[in-house]
Amino acid sequence: MLLGTGQGLRFEGVTTGVDSTATGTAHFNLIDSSATNTKTVFAGAAAAVNTVVLQNVKVDSTVPAVSLFSE
Prior knowledge:
- The structure is a single chain.
- This protein is mainly beta.
- 0% of the residues lie in helices and 62% in strands.
- It has no helices and seven strands.
- Strands 1, 2, 4 and 6 form a four-stranded parallel β-sheet that branches. Strands 3-5-7 form a three-stranded parallel β-sheet, with no helix packed on it.
- The radius of gyration is 11 Å and the shape is globular.
C-alpha cells in the first residue's frame, strides 16, 4: 500500500513520476508539482483501489496525468 503526499515535486525526463503498480492500493496526493518529458505522472494497478488527488499540477502536452495498468 502506498500512502502519501508529494508537494513541490518536479519530474523531468523520467518514465514514471509515482509508480504504485507493485504496491496494489494507493492513496496519493500530488500538490504544486510539475512534469515535463515524463511518460506518466502517476501509474497504478487497474485492479487495485486507487485514490489520486492532483492539485495545481502542471504537465506538458505529452504527459498523461494518470495511467492504470492491468496485470
